Here is the input.
Amino acid sequence: MRLLNATLGSLMIGLVSMPVLAAQGGNTECPVGLVSGMTLDAEFGPGTQELTKCIKKRQQVKMVVQINQLGTGTRPYALGNIRNIIQDYEITHGMVRGRDYEIVAVIHSGGGTMALKDEGLNGAGQAVTGRNPAQSQVEDLMAQGVKFYFCQNTTRAYLGTRVPLGGATAELIPGMLYTTAGLTSIADFQAQGYQYIQP
Here is the structure.
């Protein structure tokens, strides 16, 4: 019985001290806004606010996102992650694009088709459609300030048969930028202080 009482006493002390410990590790200034319109406690359960770690650096945040896969079906690789990052920065943490944060994405290798317009001309100059169902999502992210850079090595090797020779630029989503090589540009962005993200 003494062992049971001691065990229960230790358990009670642990339960009582949990919120205090959680509050020390959490950020009471967060969130600034609510993604779902509900408080964290209402959305996830009582005590969630105290258990939630929010980001500390909210100014001059720069990240480079690597997109080297297409994804599956209607879930294009990385684009949903970028949208979630923007929502976390802007809604949850009250950050402002251009002033507090910047996101660039580098598309290369297996992600190459994501840089193309959905409708255009193939390597033989014939009209094609359905080659990039994610075009509208890329355009939405561009409208939110994300800069997309497309690897010219990928253009040469991977897309040479998918777009007319000498006409690759016309087949890209308007607003798409180029980089000479995807991987070296990622290293260059990192050297400029961008944090690397591989979703």
